[in-house]
Each structure stands twice: as structure tokens, then as C-alpha cells.
């Protein structure tokens, strides 16, 4: 919770310092006729399409020189976009709803990554040790479950799975751990379960862990998990650039969805996933359009779990 709140507080400060509008927009530099665009990403499977799209020239053919910079998580990217350090960011929808809830003027321009929608075959799951007595999500009532960030999408997703299975989500003890720290914590018995995504999902399964549910699948059909976003100021001052970026990222998403072998190859260029693990990964889906109905469900759950101060204005979240 501290990390999430600190990130939103930093974003709010960046917004204020930048004059309540972000310092991006008309200040985007152009060299040789190409806009210089920096995008904040995370070194995980989810953002493979933008790395693949850059390699394929989907951005350069639209006069965009793309620089990709990685951060620890989507919540940490929000302040960098608000300050103008990045022109575009990648973040999960709960972080974006939290940012809007705090009054930060950002807009989603494209889907980023989605669940496969298939129970038992998704890129995120709650896992337990192979010899654990925990069989289904309702057994997690009163147990310690690791999530990567408190008061964020993992929080909502775990509580929802417990609730849907007939358990008491109020009694679960969520423990904040970075994804890479979850496999040893689970193996060492420091937590009873962990909500992991790839590649930690494949790592834990290879070590003998057992999945009990595909959390994103429980949350909503074909859930849109994360998206790409810009400031309202950039959208207003350079709509043509935002349109070109949106076209390029959506071409990248469609290409990645149709070429999983190339996705697995590009992972070697920006992640530390070991080569032996890459063929075993369950890849997410990369549809072009945001599943707005699924994001609405995410907002309703975040409101009922008191992550948000009020019901989100979803019409204000999207650029289109």
C-alpha cells in the first residue's frame, strides 16, 4: 500500500509542479522530422508488443522515434508521465482509476494487455504449495496471500476470487511482495499462497506449486488488465502525435497476438527470463480495443473494496 500511495502522491506532486497540466504536450521534441517519444514500460511479458512493434518499424514509419524505459511497476510510471519525463505510459487499469480518483488528468489511448479468458490457461493465477491443504479460493479466508502491490489490481482480484467461491474476502491477509520474491516466499512457507503472473507463474509451477484459480478470469470475461495512457494536455496540444502513436501500438498489439513465436523471441531482448522458461510461458492476449465492460467491473470492485473514494467516471478515462 505504501508503494502505491507514494506513487500516486508523487504523480500528484508532479502534476502540481508542472502547473496542473503536465509538462508534456507541445514540448515534445522533433528531430529530423520525427517526434521523440519516450514510453514507460515494465520488464514483463505484457509489454512485448511495443518492443516487437519498434523492431518491425511500426512507429518509425509514422515518424516516431521511440525510446522505451522500464520502471518497477505501472503505478511508478504515472508520475513520470505526469511530469513530462515520459510522453506515454503503460499501467494496469486499477492504477489508472486510482490516478483519476486523485484528480490526475490522464487518458487511456489503447488497450495494453488482456486475460486469455480461459480458466487454468491464463498468465496470472493464485498458486499454493504442492502439499498445501488449500484447494479452492474460499480456503484462503484467514490465510496469508502475497500480492505485488497492496490496494491495487492484485488486491481486488484476490478478494474477488475468494468472494465468488463463497469465502470471506475480509479475512484474507494480503502481504506485499515483489513478484520475483514470491516463489521463494511460497516455497519457504512465509505465505500460504501467492498471486503470480508470468514468468513467476511458470517458475512456481515448475517448482511443484499448484494453481487454484486463474484470478483475472474470475474477475471478468476477457479482462483488459492494462493500457497505454497520455496526459490530457498532450492529447489536446498534439492530437496528431497521439493518433499516430495509437495507430502504431494497435498495429503492434495485433501483430503480437498473431505471432507468438516472435513474442517469445523479443522477450530475450528486454527481460531476464531464462531461455529454458520462455517456451513454457502462458502468453496473454493483446486485443486492440479495451474491453470497457470489464474495466467497469474492475472499477465497481475497487469501489466496493474502498480502493477508490467514489465510483469512477469511466467516460473521462478514455481518449475516444
UniProtKB/TrEMBL annotation:
PROSITE patterns tied to this protein: PROKAR_LIPOPROTEIN (PS51257)
Database matches in Gene3D superfamilies: Periplasmic binding protein-like II
Residue span(s) of domain SsuA/THI5-like: 46-262
SUPFAM superfamilies recorded: Periplasmic binding protein-like II
Cleaved signal peptide residues: 1-18
A Pfam family hit: NMT1
Protein name: ABC transporter substrate-binding protein
Localization of this protein: Periplasm
Amino acid at each position: 500500500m505504501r508503494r502505491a500511495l507514494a506513487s500516486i502522491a508523487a504523480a500528484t506532486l508532479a502534476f502540481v509542479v508542472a502547473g496542473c497540466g503536465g509538462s508534456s504536450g507541445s514540448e515534445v521534441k522533433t528531430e529530423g522530422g520525427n517526434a521523440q517519444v519516450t514510453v514507460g514500460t515494465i520488464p514483463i511479458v505484457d509489454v512485448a508488443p511495443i518492443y516487437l512493434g519498434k523492431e518491425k518499424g511500426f512507429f518509425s514509419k509514422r515518424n516516431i522515434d521511440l525510446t522505451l524505459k522500464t520502471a518497477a511497476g505501472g503505478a511508478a510510471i504515472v508520475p513520470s508521465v505526469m511530469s513530462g519525463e515520459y510522453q506515454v505510459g503503460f499501467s494496469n487499469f486499477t492504477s489508472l482509476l486510482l490516478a483519476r480518483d486523485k484528480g490526475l488528468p490522464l487518458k487511456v489511448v489503447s488497450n495494453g494487455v488482456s486475460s486469455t479468458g480461459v480458466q487454468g490457461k491464463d498468465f496470472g493465477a493464485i498458486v499454493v504449495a504442492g502439499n498445501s491443504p488449500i484447494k479452492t479460493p474460499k480456503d484462503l479466508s484467514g490465510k496469508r496471500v502475497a500480492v505485488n502491490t497492496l490496494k491495487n489490481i492484485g488486491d481486488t482480484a484476490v478478494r474477488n476470487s475468494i468472494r465468488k467461491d463463497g469465502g470471506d474476502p475480509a479475512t484474507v491477509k494480503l502481504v506485499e511482495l515483489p513478484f520475483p520474491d514470491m516463489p521463494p516466499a511460497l516455497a519457504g512457507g512465509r505465505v500460504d499462497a501467492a498471486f503470480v503472473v508470468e514468468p513467476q507463474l511458470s517458475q512456481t509451477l515448475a517448482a511443484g506449486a499448484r494453481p487454484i484459480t486463474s484470478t483475472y478470469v474470475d474477475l471478468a470475461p476477457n479482462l483488459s488488465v492494462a493500457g497505454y495512457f497520455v496526459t490530457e494536455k498532450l492529447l489536446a496540444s498534439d492530437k496528431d502525435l497521439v493518433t499516430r502513436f495509437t495507430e502504431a501500438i494497435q498495429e503492434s498489439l495485433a501483430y503480437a497476438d498473431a505471432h507468438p513465436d516472435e513474442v517469445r523471441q523479443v522477450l530475450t531482448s528486454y527481460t531476464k527470463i531464462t531461455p529454458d522458461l520462455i517456451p513454457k510461458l502462458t502468453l496473454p492476449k493483446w486485443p486492440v480495443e479495451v474491453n470497457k465492460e470489464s474495466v467497469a467491473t474492475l472499477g465497481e470492485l475497487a469501489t466496493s473494496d474502498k480502493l477508490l473514494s467514489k465510483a469512477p467516471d469511466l467516460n473521462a478515462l478514455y481518449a475516444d
